[in-house]
Amino acid sequence: MIERLTGVAVAAFGAALFFLITPMATETVGYGWLRPNTVPNVMAVIMMLAGVILALTAPQDQFIDFPKMARAAGFLLVIVAGLWAMVQWRYHFVAPGLALVLMLLVGERRWHWLLIGALVLPFSISFLIEYVLSRPLI
Amino acid sequence: MVDFSVILAGFADAFTPINLMFVVFGVMLGQFVGAMPGIGPVMAMAIAIPFTFVIDPLPAIAFLVGINKGGLVGGAVPAILINTPGTPDAAATAMDGHPLAQQGKPEKATKMALYSSVTGDTFSDIVLVTISAPLALVALKMGPVEILALMVFAFSVIAGLVGKSISKGIIAAALGMLAATVGLDPEHATPRYYFGYFELFDGLPLAAVAIGMLAVAEILRRLASSKKGFSAAIAQQKDMMPEDRRVSFAEYWACRFTMVRGAFIGTILGALPGVGSTAAAFMSYAATKKSSKDPESFGKGNLQGIAAAESANSAVMGANLIPLLTLGIPGSVGAALIISAFVIHGIQPGPLLFEEQGRLVYGLFGAMIMANFANLFVGQLGLRLWSFVIRAPESVIFSTAILLCIAGVYLATGGLFGVIIMLMAAALGYVMTSFGFSPVIFIIAFFLGGRFEIALSQSLVLLDGNVLALINYPIALALFAIALITMVWMIWADRQKEL
């Protein structure tokens, strides 16, 4: 069932690209062999066709671990929040905190590993980039 | 043809102490990360690429090649010791390596893996050095129409072979091509899909997309599936008898035909874009078992089984660079990452590379051969050591890897925008993998997409929009026909598999 739904979703995305997104996001040009929208439109049509074929033929069903996917999305949100904090307060102040939060979230409680992961390694990275390579960080 | 003095100069560049240092460091890092289940050389290469920006092209690329080669050897360590391949390539190695380790001979098994890996790798490097320059000469005679046909052929092979389903392979390739159309179009220079972000005029940065889809997506997957109370992935080895710790010359020599066959299979499959080293390892293992007088001994700790798998999966690495260096087509995800290192240094892979950067190419060849020796020596000392040292929990490894990815992409793309693209690519890569779409096809199509559009545009101008004029381009016509046959065969094989 999931395979069929995936096929339908891909076909719908292809249709949205062809009828809505591409006309809006490309310019109309009246000359030349390959217009700006030619390749995007061909890709949209391919996605529509392949999506329909996937939905109709529906091979072995794919198991999707949705709770795990939600967990991964949560980790991604933590990283995005960390990136936002880096923009506000700089990489070398936020990186140890981000590493600590990630380690705590996955259940690490051993203080020596927390120390290494949240202090030694982030400061080593900052030192390597800003002092050894002389490159500016966020 | 490349001047002999250029070849000599290239090899001389390769053997400088600084280059040697980067090769050895790359091999050490590669063996180390290859031995850590879940990290692997591809992720290590992806993370390392932005940092190579500050060093010269040759040591930078030699360093990445060292990681890749070292990773193939390192991947065998957890496969043999705990039946958990560090890299997918080593899955076939576990079939005989782990039973041998269970018999109390883990060092014998890891050493056999090392020797056969270096043998297979050296064989494919020799093939690469010998045939890539003549192949590039042939490629130089090809015009836009032939290059377009070649790309269509490459797409047909890649889409069919990497994924489980041909439809999903095509969808992943179409998505990659679509992502490549972001930015200015090649014929009219009008912006596409930029949604008000002028940073997108240059297109999506390859380093950000590759690191996001391959490294960050995998880290998210590992973080999401982690359980409390991590322990080290590698078990400590027990004491063993001296003869069980080494591979004698007689034992190595007895595997010579197996290794040659494995190297041959790996080289052939490696030269085809998209086939991959895992397929080569299993094919070589199956061929060796089939031709053996004692097939029942396979899966019970037969040294021939380890030799077959390792010689084949390592031979793929050198051969992967044949389409990359001669045609600019990456044959694997590792090769795609090496391409992004070339691009970061302002070098365009393809047939002109031998003319414009001949010295660099032969320097790279020298570095590859040196990396094989480094693999042998580092492996002799390191294989046992890695199993002791790599006891850091995944929580530390992955949180540090995320920090490295953020810092690395910030450096490579020169701003925060690249890091945001990386995180978006990671989300897309995670979803694609979860639903069975290959991010590897996406990346390869993304890389080839821009060139494909340029070749298509030039071809249409040359043909004046008349498809029938293709009759004047017999090589292109033959390549289109082969692509069509390949596609039909792939669909037929896919249908057979489903029935």
UniProtKB/TrEMBL annotation, chain A:
The chain crosses the membrane at residues 7-26, 38-58, 70-91, 111-133. InterPro entries: DUF1468. It comes from the Bacteria. Residues 5-137 form the DUF1468 domain. Keywords: Membrane, Transmembrane, Transmembrane helix. This is Putative tricarboxylic transport membrane protein.
From TrEMBL, chain B:
InterPro entries: DUF112_TM. This is Putative tricarboxylic transport membrane protein. Residues 20-443 form the DUF112 domain. Pfam families: TctA. Keywords: Membrane, Transmembrane, Transmembrane helix. The chain crosses the membrane at residues 6-30, 42-67, 122-140, 147-180, 200-220, 263-287, 321-347, 359-378, 398-423, 430-450, 470-492. It comes from Maritalea mobilis.
